[in-house]
Each structure stands twice: as structure tokens, then as C-alpha cells.
Amino acid sequence: MKPNGTVLVTGGAGYVGSHTVVELLNSNYSVIAIDNLVNCYAHKKEKPESLKRVEQLTGQTIVFYDVDIRNRQALDKIFKSHKIDSVIHFAALKAVGESVKTPLTYYQNNIAGSSTLFEVMQANGVKNVVFSSSATVYGTPQFLPMTEDHPTGQNCTNPYGKTKYFVEEILKDVCIADPDWKVISLRYFNPVGAHESGHIGEDPSGVPNNLMPYISQVAIGRREKLYVFGDDYPTKDGTGVRDYIHITDLAIGHLKALQKMSEPDFKGWKTYNLGTGQGYSVLELIEAFSKASGKKINYAIVHRREGDVATSYADPSLARKELHWQATKGIDEMCRDTWKWQKQNPNGFKKE
Ligand SMILES: NC(=O)c1ccc[n+]([C@@H]2O[C@H](COP(=O)([O-])OP(=O)(O)OC[C@H]3O[C@@H](n4cnc5c(N)ncnc54)[C@H](O)[C@@H]3O)[C@@H](O)[C@H]2O)c1
Ligand SMILES: CC(=O)N[C@H]1[C@@H](OP(=O)(O)OP(=O)(O)OC[C@H]2O[C@@H](n3ccc(=O)[nH]c3=O)[C@H](O)[C@@H]2O)O[C@H](CO)[C@H](O)[C@@H]1O
Question: Which residues form the NAD(P)-binding domain (predicted)?
Fold first, then answer.
């Protein structure tokens, strides 16, 4: 075991999980990753490709279990076979549109799955957890920039967003019932980019729902053009404005949360925004990506996407003050690293 202890990472083979595992290994944590492979690529059920790449990058080994967080017995066995100090809980389904069509699948996976995980943790005396939440819990912004005390839950327009809100509420109640629990919920704004090596990155299956991977697939020639969802918003150029954050900055935020929870006076439930505090429009992102890649990004303006807001960006000052965390990478690095990953892996993790 390494000096900083052992972290169980659920959903460790996914986009945010794999980048966080790199930073954990590089910072003297031992890692046990679990994933049910529902949204990551594994050749013939071997260790997921993302984690194999993380092992190559770090020169270290990751203990991996192909386990679903809803499988109580399998989880319990893992907790009984290792001395686990903390959990970082990424495992979830995350496609907004899909969640509207199949809400029960989302509630089952994200809420029942999380509550099973917390029960097994409690039974095994592991009571430290960092939870992957999202700015989506704020719903339509009532003021900007959004601080952590912005109301949550009221305007969550889709089941995915509600699962994040409900799991936060569950964790608050767990902390009230048992003061030994230490919980940090990190509300991510818009994670983009890739590890600077280009070895790991975001690998959406099918047509990307999110802007950055879509732009990047246009640049590499996998898609003909980007559809810009609306240019009539009350923003600088009429297109939607978001707070994009580099995935490595986001990953480091999880290490800062673990450090915070290890302080002797830390107790209960806390939440922090992870964003840069800076908003960029769709057209600005297209321009930055064009510059980084040297490619023209073809696009067409189409109607607004249902459920989208005009502008969303964080007030990240609480994380700066209390976690001593601050985003260090700007939009040019986000585009540069996305492009490096895309160029080196035109088909993502799956070699075709
Ligand atoms: N990427 C974003 O834009 C974003 C923004 C805000 C919040 N989040 C949250 O961060 C977390 C990680 O997101 P990501 O972008 O890495 O997604 P991802 O899909 O790349 O990673 C999630 C991983 O969890 C696994 N998984 C899903 N359900 C599981 C289950 N029942 N048991 C075990 N493994 C399971 C998937 O196979 C996948 O590898 C999620 O909770 C997501 O909701 C992501
Ligand atoms: C409604 C929705 O899906 N919300 C999710 C999406 O938020 P966001 O809608 O903030 O992220 P996104 O990357 O889907 O869109 C960013 C901006 O790009 C625009 N855009 C996006 C794709 C595209 O093909 N064309 C285009 O114009 C979109 O209208 C928005 O103004 O992703 C977040 C994580 O990063 C969260 O998971 C949100 O819950």
C-alpha cells in the first residue's frame, strides 16, 4: 500500500475516472477501480483499454474489478479483501436525452446503485466519499456566476439531473444520521480536454451529445459539420455560453477533496463548484479549436436544443479558498489536448 492510502474508484474506466486515476497514482495513492463496462471499451472483457493506457502512462498497476455498483455481494467482497480508506464515486449513466426516455434505468443505476454502494461502505466502516455531482443540480441559473448556495433541485429538467440532486440529498441525510461520514460533492461545470500525452481522452459511443467531442470529430473528418443549437440567445454572439474546464484540472480537484477530508476538523457534507469562472460561447470554442487544430470547422446554425440554458458559469472561489484548488489550463490548452488525443486515436480506444 502507498503512503496516502487506498482509494476505491467507481466508474474508474470512464472519462473523468481514468484521468483521476492517473493523478491518484502519481500522488502516491493506491487505486482499486471498478466498472461494469457499460460505457467504456474493453477488448474481450479484458481490463478496460483506458486503464491499460493509464498503467502505461504511470508505470503502475491498477487493481480492477468488472463489477456493477448495484451488486451488493461483489462490492462487499471487494471491501472485505482490501483496506479501503476512501471512495471516489464516478459510476453513473450520464446521457441527458436518454434519461428522459428511460428514467427508470437512470434512477435504478444512479440512485439505487449509489445507495447500495453507501450501504456497503457503511457496513464495512468506510465513510469517506467524494461524489461526482454536476452543475446540472442548479437547473436554470437564477443568478450568475453560480455559487454553491444557488438553489438546487427546483429546476432540474431531466431525470439525469435529478439523480445527481437526489444522491446529494441522500448523502446529506447520511451525514446527519452518522457524524463519522465525510462527504465532498464536486459540482463539475463542463469537463473537456484530454491528458496532455494524448493517450487517454473522452471516447463517446455513437454521436457525441456534447460540444467539444462533436467539434473534434468534425475536425478529424468523422462528421461533416457541427450543428450549432441556436444563435438567438441573449449572449455575446447569440450562442450558448458555458464554463469549460480542463479534465486534468478537474481530476486534481478530486485529490484536493481527499486532502480536505483528511483534515482533523473536517466533518459532514460539503460541496464545491469545479469550474474556471470563465464562460465561452459555442462560436468562441469553434474558433479556438480551429486555431489549435489548423482545421476549418464546418457548422450550420439550427434551432435551440430543448432544455438548454443561455449561459452557465461557476463562481469557483470557495474551492480556491477551502480546497486550495484552482483551474490552471485555459481554452487553448483544452482544445490542444483534445486535438492531440483525437489525432492519435481517431476512433477512440477501439482500434479499427
Ligand atoms: N463528463 C461530464 O461532462 C460530466 C459533467 C458533470 C458530472 N459528470 C459525472 O461524472 C461522472 C463520470 O462521468 P464521465 O464523463 O467520466 O462518464 P463515463 O461514462 O465516461 O464514466 C462513467 C463510468 O461508470 C461506469 N458505470 C456506469 N454505471 C455503472 C454501474 N452501475 N456500475 C459500475 N460502473 C458503472 C461506465 O461504464 C463508465 O465507464 C458521472 O457520475 C457523471 O454523471 C460528468
Ligand atoms: C442538456 C444537456 O445535455 N446538458 C448536459 C450537458 O450540458 P451542456 O449543454 O452545458 O454541454 P454541451 O457540451 O452539450 O453543450 C455546450 C453548448 O454547446 C451547444 N451545442 C452542443 C452540442 C452540439 O452539437 N451543438 C451545440 O451547439 C449547446 O447548445 C450548449 O450551448 O453536458 C454537461 C456536461 O458537460 C451536463 O452533463 C449537462 O447535464
Answer: 8-338
